[in-house]
Each structure stands twice: as C-alpha cells, then as structure tokens.
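FAQ: What does a ligand-bound record look like?

Like this one, built around zinc ion:
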Amino acid sequence: MSPSKLKLFRLLGITFQIDLTWMLVFALMAFSLAAQFSKEHPDWSVTHYWIVGIVTCLLFFVSIIFHELAHCLVARAAGLPIQSITLFILGGVSHIGKEAQRPGIEFLVSAAGPLASTVISAFFAVVHMATRSNLGTVTAVAGWLAEINLVLVLFNLIPAFPLDGGRILRSALWGVTGDFSKATRVASAVGRTTSVLFFLEESYSSLRASLPMVYGQD
Ligand SMILES: [Zn+2]
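The answer part, i.e. the structure of the complex:
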C-alpha cells in the first residue's frame, strides 16, 4: 500500500482505504454543503447545518462505497480476485486483480455500479417525497443524496473508457467483434473523443459567457 493511502477496515475480504486527496474533497464538500443548507434553511442553527453538512457528506461517500461494492461483488461472483476499494479525489475505484475473461462478465461487472447508484438514488428520492410535507432535515438530506447519486449514474455512463460507460461499450464491442484488443482500442478512442467534445463544449460555454457583447445573450 502506498503511503498516501489510509486503510480504514476490511469487510467481506475487501480492504477499504482512502487516498489522502479524499480528505481535501471531504472538507470542501462538507463546507459547501453546510453553506448550501444555511442558505436554504435560515431557521437552522450554525451547529445544525454544519452537522447536517458533515453527515450528508459521509452518506455520499457511503453511496460511493455501495457503488464500488456492487462492482466488486459481481466480479467476485464471476471468479475475479478482489483486492480493495479506494476513495480518492474523483470518487471511488475498485482494484480487481484480473480483467474479465468474457465480454458478458465485463458487462455485468461494469453495469453493477451504475445500477447500485440508481437504486440508492431512487431510495433517497422516495424518502425525500415521503417526508416532503414537514420540510425537515431528512427531506433536505435525502433530496440532495437522490440528486447526487443520479449525477453519479449519468457521469459514470459517459462512454469514456475507463469510466463504467466506456467499459460497457468495450464489452459490447468485444462481444460483437470477439476481439478484446480491438474493442479496447475503439473504446479508448471513443473515450478520448468524448473527453475532447466535453472540453470543447465547456470552453465554448465559458467563452460565450465571457463575451456576451459579441454573441448576444440568450
Ligand atoms: Zn463504477
């Protein structure tokens, strides 16, 4: 284990660890959540919105652990060796000791994470709806977690290898062509193109925002 990683615990034969970059994300996210809640709920005390911010942030990382755990458990059921789950600056990553030997297995392992996040998002959406009449702490926390888990699903389904969507695409190409290296090359190329398109779209939007006099406002 590298010195930048902190081992948390071992469960179901999997080591759960956090990368030290994650601490920074946790602090920033808890702060921004506390700020958001203080704006949306001016009746809450300072202690109240800070505690809710920290607890929401913890629940978000538990959601990420569930997403990674889904990948790991399906991989293990398919006979792949599982080593660890690490939380880092961009979310979570599962360390699986071996690539899937068949496209169907790669598909199931890759799809398990987004599916788990969809279930978690739906669960929090139901809690949010069920408690909406009293607009309390639970309503606010559940609403935010339903949204963020949905964002996690959509982000992971972008067909940019090595995101889950890119792996799903590779498994499909692999299944169709029967050629693993070709499928990897094509999925990686699609991934690079997608990233470039996202980057161009972002740059274009910020350029437009900074030049309203040139393009006009819409
Ligand atoms: Zn995933």
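Follow-up question: can I read anything off the structure? Yes, for example: The pocket of zinc ion is lined by residues 67, 71, 113, 156, 164 (CB under 6 Å).
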